[in-house]
Structure formats: C-alpha cells, structure tokens
Amino acid sequence: MIIAVILQLILAAIGLVLSPILFLPDVSLNSAIPSALAAAGAWLGLANEVLPLATMLIVFGTILVVENTHFGYKVLKWIYQKIPGVN
User: What is the pLDDT of residues 32-56, one digit of tens each?
Assistant: First the structure.
C-alpha cells in the first residue's frame, strides 16, 4: 500500500514536471534527420564488425554509473558530516 502511494506520487511529480512540454504542439522532423540517423546506424553497424562498439558502450556506461554512485556517496557523507552534533 505504501509503495503504491509512493509510486503514484512519483508519477504525479513526473507528470507535473513534463506538463509544460505536453502542451506544446507535435514536432515534425524534416526528412534529413531520420535519414541521418539511418546512415549513422549503418556506419555503426559496419564499425561494430571491427570494434566491439556495443561492448565498449556498455563498459563505459557501467563505469559512469559506478563513478557517479561513488561521487554521490561522498557528497552525502560530506553533507552528513556538516550536520552539527554529528561526528
């Protein structure tokens, strides 16, 4: 019950943040953008045969997650130590 309420609050907060964007009219892309994405996908597919790009991106993303988590831990620890009366 509590988890459901927390999830509903999070969903409402996301909806509140995104509400100005949702009132904007739909965006129509010109034909150059999708064709550029298709060309980039084809190029990455060819490069993936030589270099394992997908694996490299996964490793890079994992390193970023670990480093950001460690940085967040250090920031929270620093904030906790700044509270008066806490050693």
Answer: 877 888 888 888 888 888 888 888 8
**Exposure b/e, 43-81, CB count within 10 A at least 16 = b:** eeeeeeeeeeeeeeeeeeeeeeeeeeeeeeeeeeeeeee
The DSSP symbol for 64 reads: H
- Overall domain count for the chain: 1
> CB-based burial of residue 31 (10 Å sphere; 0-12 exposed, 13-18 middle, 19+ buried)?
exposed
Residue 18 lies in a domain: no
Tokens of 54: 């997908």
